[in-house]
Amino acid sequence: MANSASGETTKPIAEEERPREYPCGSRGTLRAIRTDRFKAGQLTFSTVLPITRENAVMAPLMLSVLRRGTERYPALADINRRLDDLYGSALWVQCAYRGDRLILGFGMDLLDGSYLPEPVNLPEGLTEILDQILYHPLLDDRGLLRKACVESEKTLQRDEIRALRNVPAQYAAAQARRIFYEGTPAGIPLYGTEEEVERVTAEQLTRYWNCWKQTVVPECFYVGGDNPEKIAGTIGRVFDRAENRNAVPVLGLSDRPVIEKADKTRRVEEELPVGQSHLVLGYRTGGVTVGHPEWAAAALMTELLGMSPSSLLFRNVREKLSLCYSISAGYDAFRGALFVSCSLSAKNREIAEAEILGQVAALCEGRFGNDELEAARQSLCGAYRQLGDRPASLESFWAGRAMAGVAETPAECRQRFAALTRGDVIAAARRLSLNTVYFLRGTAPEETIDDSDEI
Amino acid sequence: MIATKFESALLRERYWKIEHPSGLRIYVFPKRTTVAYAVLATAYGSLDVSFRTADRPDFVTVPDGVAHFLEHKLFDNPDGSDSLLRFTALGADANAYTDYNRTAYLFSTAERFGESLEELLRFVFTPYFTPETVAKERGIIAEEIRMYRDAPFDRCFQNLLEGLYHSHPVRRNICGSEGSIANITADLLYECYRVFYQPSNMILCVSGDVAPETVTAAADRILPASPAPRAIIRAPICEPETAARSEISARMPVSKPIFYLAVKDPVLPPDAMARLRRDAAMSLLSDVLFSRSSVFFNRLFERGLLTTSYSHGYSGTDSFAFHSICGESNDPRAVRRECAEYLAQVRENGISEDDFRRSKRGLIADQIRAYDSTEEICNNLLSFALEGLDLFSYPDLLSSVTKEECESLLNEVFTPERECLSVVEDY
User: Fold this and answer.
1) Architecture of the domain spanning A266-447
2) Quick check: A244 pLDDT over 90?
3) What's the gap in Å between the CA of A227 and the closest CA on chain B?
4) Catalytic site includes residue B387
5) What is the ipTM of this complex?
6) Rounded to an integer, what distance in angstroms lies between the CA atom of residue A49 and that of residue A60?
7) Domain B2-234, CATH 3.30.830.10 — does that match?
């Protein structure tokens, strides 16, 4: 192996490298990138569900209840202590939306065996915990998930729903998306509503768990130095069960066509007793999602608009007009949407909104410099080059591409960005249509924030 | 130039420390990653509000938030350009942050590392401030201050420091206040810059597929010829051992009360190695007592007094140190009572051998995990370099901490008169 400038001999992950696929039991798949690059690799297990009101409420609640105790590890503390014994390995719940799908599963980190002072098979140890959690939770004498745990986790899930407003910028982003996606699966709030959670019983959740087991098709991803075939075999044994022999994988990102254009602009304003206000603008991208021929142009246009310090929004709204500290644009390439978010004083709302609209218009009219375009291109290419340095980034990139049925490597994506012209970027901007303007008005003047009530 | 090599058999890593003729200390940690990361920092943070140089008799006191203001303005160049844009054009991702004891400028990049490094060195060593640009920045920083005020955990933490400390500058916001930044001028920025941005007060850390010679060559080209360094003397801080307040609370829109429960560590060893050992022992004690595997967390979680939004840890510097637990609870005062009872039980029964072994094993494994990311390596390296310590000394130090040492710290540190509870509750 050739030495690098630094004299290091471990091998970086080649950008053109695609994950290899291994059968994981009779139905599932493990995608793996084998590398000695990391001291700690990562293994994720997930199942894909359609977003429905029931899944949004029940799926995260189910995983939380299952994690509370198992036949071999009766309490949460016992599970955590077992993880500590496995060299402080982390096991985290994954529950997120991608397109119109709910991704549900667990992630775990795996310290490279060569760093352990004694031979311990971490993949087997962690898979055993996973098996206990998913298939051997503690049940009551009627075979139901324990009522006390169900009620406790219901309380925590309701807290989670309410906690959204603790971070006003995140609350504004979530509200804008709820309005933007209303009437579509993505408009259903993850975790449901407090009322929906309150209505769930132990009987219903047990029934849901039993049905879920029949549908499990494991989708796994591994980055690390262990033998992927062995890992696939270990996980496959957990999920190869009679109950899911007829399971059919949920394919694609959605069952419905992407909405291409906004038919009107919806304007919604709310108030919250906080000091700062938050403005979110949601655009449809003309139906351009991952896999669409114009996807790369939409990504570069978003970068130029608001994803780096050299972007139009950062330079004009923040640096020139001093209207805000944070402003950014983000492209939801799985749903064909672009959101601009800005945190500002309420008194600056109109001027900021006008400036944001003005910068989008500048893009449509080609009023941007070649140096600005090249800076955006460099920034975007840099982000794709960095993917190989983090197992979590690789997992996220490839899992999304697998769902979209796209096999482009990060290197191939960069080649597409390199080939884009000004005209491609202008065309991507002209496909934008404004669907949602959401404003969260902060109504608390500074002096009402009380910090003087010492006890 | 004097170069020293450090190696770790446990981690299978190595790095170099290079004393550059300018006075800048350079650390290069080779990693064969796609992305290289560099951070250039000055030992100047929000705590440095009262200081003098050895050639001046009197201490100067400046408004809160100058270090942070400088961080914002240093990206401006005399030709009117902005270094943030130059980094983007080079394909690099640049940023900066200000902490209590440092201001750091950083970038990560997958290509053209040498050019980005030169840009980093050039802009940090070329200050350019005008009354107009300073005035303009106030609006942006005011929005940043408001953003943190609206973040309940940040607010709760800031209040905690105000409750723990009587007069220590750590109780004041790193960004300053809207009132204090109104008094910051271009001249003041230049004055503070000249004191704290001397190469001898600064450290450069680099990690990635970069040879040490590449880094020193860039430093040779860019760094100014260094006049004799002017020693910086900070005004002494007199802070009682007790907490300023037992409890402090605020009201904000939150779904559930948020709390920090902290205890001030009264012992701040002047020797950096002794401080590091205390840090290792306190971190281990914290894990044994308060991790998610602990009796404390699980007892309170099962009773609904704690949620999974929970953390714990020890923060120590040469001028302040404290241990804290943080989370959400319907009854933070009950958490405090439970914590006192729990600590009394552990004092009586001693720390369990099993818990101690498990925590130590997990923390040492975490040390190994920390060497996959160039960003994490650089920032850890910087923290150790600011203290004049070898990064690789920590795992060995952690291994050598005994249960008895932790038990002794439990008795020494956790006393009610040094404790403060900060709560943020809904209206």
Assistant:
1) 2-Layer Sandwich (3.30)
2) no
3) 20
4) no
5) 0.89
6) 12
7) yes
